[in-house]
Amino acid sequence: MSESTFQQSYLQQPLLETADWLYQSSERLAQQLNYAALALMHTITSGGKVLCAGEGEAAWLAQQAAAWLVRGAGRERPPLSALALTPPVGPSQASLAQQVRALGHPGDVWLAFSLERDDPDLLAATEAAAELDLTLVIFTGEAARTLGPQLRDTDVWVPLPGTRESTLFAIAWLALEGLCAAVDTHLLGEAA
Fold it and tell me: Could you give the CA distance from residue 25 to residue 180 in angstroms, rounded to a whole number?
């Protein structure tokens, strides 16, 4: 086997694994994304807002979620009320939990992203969101070991297939794009 063939095979493997995860879980993932879109729509049309958060690379997913909800996912529409909370980088900054307590109100949505790491600030913020009676919409790995225990019957869990952080991130990105497109479709109807 040539070095080029080995490299191509080695590079294809993570792509094929991710495609396989998506294929196997697409029906369940689509169903949970629909429930998540309905939860967001209920909150937004009732005058509430969506608070988005994550830690590490997942904080970037939260920022993208808030940006897409505010400006739309490709179709022109009025901005929606969404805000990405910023994980603290130093002791003088407010924790995610403090930000939730300051900004969250009953009926708002807590849209959290976890790549199945030990995220103590995200966990504390999720607990605060539940205490304030925010609807939890949680994107996490299928193990849901960090945020899963916080989920109630009225919350939405979007289980991301895969075990590696990079796979969870990639699938969360695709799922988030689908969620925002679904919100736009609920608001605007099918694209022409």
Answer: 19
Q: What does the block give as tokens for 102?
A: 């300051």
pLDDT (0 to 100) of residue 60: 96
Residues 80-91 pLDDT 10s:
999 999 998 888
DSSP one-letter string for 48-73: --EEEEESTHHHHHHHHHHHHHHH-S
Predicted model pTM: 0.89
**Tokens 């708002």 -> residue:** 108
Two tokens, residue 131: 């205490």
Rg (CA), the chain: 17
Phi, psi of 156 (to 5 degrees): -125, 125
C-alpha to C-alpha distance for 110 and 145, rounded to whole angstroms: 18
| 84 DSSP β-pair partners | 52
Residue 27 pLDDT > 70, yes or no?
yes
Task: Give the pair of three-digit tokens for residue 59.
Answer: 């904080």
Q: Give the per-residue pLDDT at 25.
A: 65
> Six-digit token pair at 62?
């939260």
Neighbours of 40 (CB within 10 A): 26
Residues whose CB is less than 8 angstroms from the CB of residue 87 and which lie 6 or more positions away in sequence, other chains included: 53, 54, 55, 59, 96, 121, 122
Give residue-wise pLDDT tens across range 31-70. Answer: 999 999 999 999 999 999 999 999 999 999 999 999 999 9
Q: What's the angle, vertex CA 68, arms to CA 20 and CA 110, rounded to 5?
A: 85
Longest dimension (CA), the chain: 61
